[in-house]
Specification:
The chain is mainly alpha-helical and 89 residues long. 71% of the residues lie in helices and 0% in strands.
């Protein structure tokens, strides 16, 4: 998961919803960092009976899924903008 890019004024003018999406994405990113710091062994988890570690993995998966979904939304916005710019009228 990469560090989120914050929208600029032009981005927000075109799509104000990007502001709250940036907040969500940043929170997900910080959650991944915090869980990684609290549980450095998350990478080598394998099968475990530790409920806290299993819950941390679920949060990590959800955070990554949220970031992926936000990126797909940004891509859809960019494609729609490009399509609108190509229209001759």
């Amino acid at each position: 998961m990469t560090s989120p890019r914050l929208p600029n004024v032009n981005d927000l003018h075109a799509a104000p919803e990007l502001a709250v999406l940036a907040i969500l994405e940043t929170n997900a990113y910080v959650a991944v960092l915090a869980l990684g710091a609290a549980h450095p062994d998350l990478q080598d988890l394998g099968d475990t009976d530790d409920l806290e570690l299993r819950a941390a993995v679920v949060v990590l998966d959800a955070a990554r899924a949220l970031a992926d979904t936000i990126n797909r939304y940004r891509l859809a916005l960019a494609l729609a903008k490009k399509r609108d710019e190509l229209l001759p009228f």
